[in-house]
Specification:
By secondary structure, this protein is an alpha+beta fold. Helix content is 34%, strand content 25%. A hairpin with a 4-residue loop joins β8 and β9. α10 runs antiparallel to α11. It is elongated. 35% of the residues are buried. The protein binds zinc ion.
Length: 329
């Protein structure tokens, strides 16, 4: 079963989170595999999307944002876009759009960043928005300060956390077709709460970036964790092996009902709104061509079907007509 554990290092400005997605992850993969249009993910995409899922859960668990955290990678390679979304309660969903063939063993660069124009975006979409409120979004390129492509997702996200949040962060990520797992080590900001939602970062905190000895020592230990170990060892063993000389204080683990799990936020109402935004002319032409409108959810594979009567209703409900140039009698 999936699980998430938070811990701190007693007396030091360093915290950690470790996540292991099992059932939540295999559910995402099996839904994709049973999609007859796409089929299963190639192993390389499985690894990337698993690492993204683990990372998105770690980030959401770290900030406990009351809304949706969306981690996206997009570019011009055979993987056009990959998305992992995590809600406040750690329910998650993920999908990727694969348009071309992948070379075996393709890495982030070959999959998404072929022309070095790939981007990584993190969006925080509040649950209860006030009128006109836009989601907060930060983006980073998939290259470093010398414009050299970054080979690993973990490095892209470490770069993001440092640039956008002024937080020293170490991430170890790994995924296969059974487990998606991640370890996050972060230096706690000196004053106030540095977080993704863009709170003010103090001067004292800036002075600490990259220089805190306790953080550097613990980050170095964390980086000795291999992908194989992260995927195969249980969490107690990992923490003991890495930090046996440190005083680790652990919080109540999030397992069972509070563990990360798969859940999709799609609904018939959302699909209705999407069809409404297409406009009545476009909807009519799809009906004329195919007999009905069928929309599949990329995340969970659910199919939503609207026959001509359902579709007409979308545009005739009182007060729901979009501004349209065509007269509807
Ligand atoms: Zn869905």
């Amino acid at each position: 079963m999936s699980e998430l554990h938070k811990f701190i290092f007693d007396g030091l400005p360093v915290r950690g989170i470790i996540v292991r997605l099992t059932d939540a992850w295999t559910e995402i993969l099996s839904r994709r595999a049973s999609n007859q249009t796409t089929g299963a993910y190639p192993p390389e995409v499985c690894e990337l999307l698993g690492e993204m899922s683990a990372a998105a859960v770690l980030m959401q668990a770290g900030i406990r944002f009351n809304g949706t955290l969306v981690l996206q990678i997009f570019g011009e390679g055979p993987v056009r876009v990959a998305v992992a979304e995590v809600q406040h309660d750690l329910s998650l969903r993920a999908t990727a759009k694969v348009v071309g063939d992948l070379l075996p063993g393709a890495r982030l660069g070959e999959m998404v960043n072929v022309d070095n124009k790939g981007r990584c975006a993190i969006t925080l979409d509040p649950k209860d928005k006030f009128p006109g409120q836009q989601p907060y979004q930060g983006t980073v390129p998939l290259y470093d300060d010398q414009r050299q492509p970054i080979a690993r997702l973990s490095e892209v996200l470490e770069h993001y956390m440092l640039q956008s949040e002024q937080l020293d962060t170490t991430l170890v990520l790994a995924a296969n077709d059974k487990v998606a797992a991640g370890l996050l080590i972060q230096r706690l900001p000196v004053q106030g709460e540095g977080n993704l939602a863009g709170s003010v970062v103090s001067r004292a905190n800036e002075d600490e970036i990259g220089v805190n000895e306790d953080y550097k020592r613990i980050a170095l230990l964390a980086r000795t964790l291999t992908a194989d170990e992260l995927l195969s060892l249980d969490i107690d063993t990992i923490l003991r092996r890495l930090f046996w000389e440190e005083k680790v204080l652990r919080f109540e683990p999030q397992v069972g009902d509070s563990a990360p799990r798969f859940a999709c936020t799609c609904s018939r109402e959302r699909v209705r709104n999407m069809i409404r935004s297409l406009g009545v002319d476009e909807a009519d032409s799809i009906i004329a061509e195919r007999g009905d409108i069928e929309v599949g959810c990329d995340f969970c594979g659910r199919q939503y079907r609207f026959d001509p009567v359902d579709a007409a209703q979308i545009f005739t409900e009182p007060g729901k007509q979009p501004p349209s140039t065509s007269a509807v009698q």
